[in-house]
Design goal:
The structure is a homodimer of 341-residue chains. The first copy, chain A, is of the alpha+beta class. Chain A folds into 2 domains: 124 residues, 60s Ribosomal Protein L30, Chain: A (2-Layer Sandwich), CATH 3.30.1330; 163 residues, PurM-like C-terminal domain (Phosphoribosyl-aminoimidazole Synthetase, Chain A, domain 2, Alpha-Beta Complex), CATH 3.90.650. The first copy, chain A, is 26% helix and 24% strand. In chain A, the strands form 3 sheets. A 7-stranded mixed sheet of chain A has the order 9-11-8-12-10-13-14. In chain A, strands 2-7-5-6 form a 4-stranded mixed sheet, with helices on one face. In chain A, strands 3-4 form a two-stranded antiparallel sheet. In chain A, strand 5, helix 3 and strand 6 form a beta-alpha-beta unit. In chain A, helix 2 runs parallel beside helix 3. The longest helix of chain A has 17 residues.
């Protein structure tokens, strides 16, 4: 069955499609949170009930192709939302989704993607408390966009604010997601069978560490679009600080490195979807790495630190120490991959 | 200047574009709410600070054409978000937006649309605390989609739950927005110059009334996509109740009625963007109409009521009394207009 314009009418066809795509997959206890209400009432909003230290996040997801080794647009939307909350120190509680689909798409295809998303949310007990479905004509949109707002509750909210002396920690091997999407778009998946997206939620591994170390974690981010290059630059731009990273310390799988090297692409600019980067108080940096490893992030490691140089040329910049000991500026420019995350 | 794929990179071009499109328009006090933080920190989430009875809403907006008599996609996104909160009884506090634009769009065009949105939010002191910008290739998307999550705080949350005896109130003349979009899509704007979208926020007129009458308001909704037909059906479907409305009582401007009549379209199925429909306790219905009129909704009026019939054929249905006294079922099927709201 294909998506028709009538599925976007807001009326009975929309309800039926929402029932099939979303509600039929949601156990009743995941339709609301606390004492509020959500998708158990079919209206345009959700009521959270009373709570404190609420953290919100929002992102639109679109990817070409919609399915890729390791996941799909649905996995990406769920994990991306979860990780955006986790890096702020928040335990994901609920989400709202807005799905925009092209007229003519196979409903089965949309269905499996929505299933991927809800499966991830359900595995972690995250409620889906509201949402929307819109259909656009085929000449206006060719596939599917999922926008998700995530709601979480935090003990300690991480406000990205790095300080001199902070150690930079990367939780796992970088550039995996971007590399596989790039390979798919170039029609090279057959040649590079060992590439696979790292898309995964960081609830079990990273969140307990942030909760435990609280204010010792000065910044945390999932370096998706734009990779490490963009995230690290965001942390220092406009300040008199410099982040110095050691390229040889950054974890990256050999297959990923070789694939990107062959194309002349810097892995620092390539998206991760299951990795976080942290700036932490140097007194607890080693401990945090140990904790992350114990919880399953076995390649977590310190890759650099935050410095204050007297030369203003370095202020607000990210500097990489190359494999041969040279220093280069890492620009906040990403691999311009269409629709990577 | 046109949107380029590099504007979607997440790096410096994206920051510059966000600065131009969004941040430059936002006064500092509208970048966060309460004691939390929002767009004053450039990350992927927002922290609300502590608060109670928080109401959330989310919707994707797309319309063809992007500008129309009475407003634009930006006006629509802001007013739609505000009204979704207001009909739940919530005072809008903050919003997060996710903008997806097609590569090649004029940045000036995107800019004026974002300005329309932020102008509405700013007029009511609503903060924009987070968001996202994505660019899709031209062959995948032809214009622009804005998804907005709205956050509000409510004294009394309206949970749509109609009861036997409730009076149905419409706050203003219906079908104005849908009619003008239809005219635009049919290339008829020159012929029907008196059509104009009713898009507007209901904060000053409806919200104080809901706040004042609290639990006497059993349901409230802005009948956008799908019009009154879909909203009223949503309220009774699956129950043993029937909503009976009097067609001759429903406010509609002569020009709108004539235009839709000529096309054979039922105004009940056509979108409004500045009108709400309420189901209220009959003991306060007249009072509420008076309050609404005093606050500027001068055409607010009672158009029907909720009944319980013994004949199960009528259960869960909306019945209209026609101008000649007959009875017809109003189906929850909307005018299938592409991208109306």
């Amino acid at each position: 069955m294909r998506i028709g314009i009538e599925h976007g009418s807001g009326g009975i066809e929309t309800w039926n499609l929402l029932e099939k795509l979303v509600l039929s997959k949601l156990p009743p206890h995941l339709r609301k949170v606390l004492d509020g209400f959500g998708t158990d009432v079919l209206d345009d909003g959700a009521y959270l009930g009373s709570s404190t230290k609420i953290v919100l996040t929002m992102d639109s997801y679109t990817v070409n192709p919609l399915r890729f080794p390791g996941g799909s647009l649905g996995t990406l939307a769920a994990c991306g939302t979860i990780n955006d909350l986790v890096v702020m120190g928040a335990r994901p509680l609920a989400a709202m989704d807005s799905i925009v689909v092209a007229e003519g798409m196979e409903i089965d295809e949309v269905d499996t993607i929505v299933k991927d998303m809800i499966d991830v949310f359900a595995r972690y007990g995250i409620a889906l408390i509201g949402g929307d479905l819109k259909v656009m004509p085929r000449n206006s949109l060719d596939s599917m966009i999922i926008t998700v707002a995530g709601i979480g509750v935090a003990k300690h909210v991480v406000r990205d604010s790095v300080r001199e002396g902070d150690k930079i920690i990367v939780t796992g091997p970088i550039a995996e997601h971007g590399a596989v999407i790039l390979a798919a778009q170039l029609g090279m998946l057959d040649q590079v069978k060992d590439l696979r997206s790292d898309v995964k939620p960081l609830i079990d591994t990273l969140l307990p560490v942030i909760e435990e170390y609280g204010s010792y974690v000065h910044a945390a981010r999932d370096p998706t679009r734009g990779g490490l290059a963009v995230t690290l630059n965001e942390w220092v731009r406009g300040t008199d600080l410099t982040i110095v990273i050691d390229r040889s310390a950054i974890p990256i799988r050999e297959e990923v490195k070789n694939f990107l090297d062959a194309l002349g692409i810097d892995p620092l600019t390539v998206a991760c979807e299951g990795v976080a980067v942290l700036a932490v108080d140097p007194r607890v940096a080693e401990e945090i790495v140990e904790e992350l490893r114990k919880r399953g992030e076995r390649m977590a490691t310190i890759v650099g630190e935050v410095k204050k140089f007297s030369n203003p040329v370095a202020h607000g910049k990210v500097v990489a120490i190359t494999e041969v000991g040279g220093r280069t500026i890492v620009e906040p420019r990403a691999l311009n991959l269409p629709r990577i995350c």
